[in-house]
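ZP: hey, is the pyridoxal-5'-phosphate complex queued? I don't see it on the tracker
AM: it wasn't, my bad. submitting now with these inputs:
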Amino acid sequence: MHFSNFAARYQKSTGTVRLMEDLGAATSASGCICQLGGGNPAHIPEVEDLLREAMADLTADTLAFGKMIGEYDAPGGNVAFRETLANLLTEQFGWPLTQNNIAITNGSQSSFGLLFNSFAGSFPDDSHKRILLPLTPEYVGYFDVGLAEQPIFEGRRAEIDLLPNRQFKYRVDFESLQLNQSHGAVCVSRPTNPTGNVITDREMDQLRGECHNAGIPLIVDGAYGLPFPGMIFTPATPFWDANTILLLSLSKLGLPGLRTGIVVAAPEIIQLIQNTNAINTLAPSRVGPTLLTPLLQQGKLQNICDELIRPYYERKRDQALQVIEQVMDDLPVRVHKPEGALFLWLWFDGLPITSEALYQELMALGVFVLPSRPFYPSELSNSRHQDECIRVNYAASEGAVTSGLTQIAQVVRSHF
Ligand SMILES: Cc1ncc(COP(=O)(O)O)c(C=O)c1O
């Protein structure tokens, strides 16, 4: 088989490939598995009941069901959904949006590829630009999407604030930010995967100002954020303006199987996505938007987020923290202040092995977590901290979280 240079990009294993393979391996493995890796959201029975009801209503509606499965949607995505969402965001947050500010993709992951390669890589004046990640560690899924020969990411190391109760919080180091001509956009996930950090309003304001001054867009990945799924446990104000590209997703509502991503941006960016959708996939899926439109119109989605999803994850977070207190009391562990999303980021200060080796050892025991290094762009200079952390997804069952954390404690203890 002779593959092109293009195929070479997809022939190697990467952080994202490994993450998704681990998910598959854990699903098909026999024996006792603690799946605390991957980014699967929880199965929340009450939420699934409501979604099942909405799907039953939809399948009972002959016309709507027929259109959903039997017709390609508009290349920018379902117009009724985009109009409904634009009105809702305008009402809720005062953002001046119409359907021309919203596009649908087959999952946020595919939006990143398009956006990052549109704002980074080679430019007509022969310059090369990069996406600046002001606060690393950052979402592993970003790092493999670049199509350019040269790296398209540049990361800045976070400042670390030590907090009571063996917690810590990452903070943007604005002195090292130094936006310049070589940057095409800035991107943050808020809440952040892998750390559960929620970048503060003040940090966001400053990033927004610096991007505006540099004339480059600020990309905000709200996969876990506001208005949905709303997995934020600390005060945080969402924002949007014409220089902001906000990415939303239906996945963490409990619908990753529907592969629906949403981009809220200036019309010229929406047009770009629309054209890319047409070229690459003809049209995005219309299942997610068709299912969600009535829930948005009836205000039910907001209730689902406020009354079911957020309290559920808060409870899960607290249970996981309690287990850590019990089983890691004697270990030099710190937990990043868990302010959102569904992860705990554990820092074993002075860990005698790398977290990559720890990850391998845990996997052999059937405990799946993620090591820290893949969450940093490879160009970032090394620091010990990059190899001392692991990410734990606490959406799994209480038994799996307790057993997994207990085994993590045992293995880490054996190395100290
Ligand atoms: C921070 C973050 N952004 C985006 C995504 C991708 O979401 P989607 O399922 O919409 O592709 C994920 C998935 O885990 C994520 O953690």
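AM: back. The chain has a mean pLDDT of 94.
ZP: great, adding it to the tracker
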